[in-house]
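Handout, page 2. Input:
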Amino acid sequence: MIVRVLVLLLVLLATGCATQRGVGPSPAAGEGGVPAQAVAPPPDSPEAFAALAARDAQLRDAPGWALAGRLAVARGNDGGTLNVQWVQTGAAFDIRLSAPVTGKQWRLSGGAEGAILEGLEGGLREGPDPEALLLEATGWRLPIRQMPDWVRGLRGPGPVAGLLVDAEGRPVAFQQDAWTLSFRDWWPGDPPLPRRVFAEAEGASVRLVVSEWKARPE
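Output:
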């Protein structure tokens, strides 16, 4: 009787060991036995910068674009929130700004040769520098020349410092022309485009929230 019990115990132990060795996913499998997915490259890796370069090339080939959204500008103790519609074709820009509360509207248009600002009480103004023209007339500091690149997550001509890139090849932050740029959210797409862009420089700040992108202006 004792011998039979010992034999039975040995059989049960052997079966249990064999079962344990057969349970669980293979080393290449993920959780639940499902094959593991490819791991994204880490931020600021060579693969991430290669994806950034590919995204940049795709965007720079676009002949034009348009966006609509909300713009918050501040300079010292002065600031305000504006609705913005921006159409860009090459170097030519057409920017329409409106105050949500008062309904007042402004239009800044031009290109490489200069700019025209409409909507002022004394009539339109013209000047060779759109940023200086807008600053003098309204007190708002907007880097008009650089923004066509920056709002799309591109670096403009000239030196760039502190470039950080996420795992998907999108810029996280960089500094250029005394401005510090940070990209807080993105619209999905091919390529992805920024949803929220923050820029700061010498006591001035610009915060853009894009509600709509169009690859080509109508």
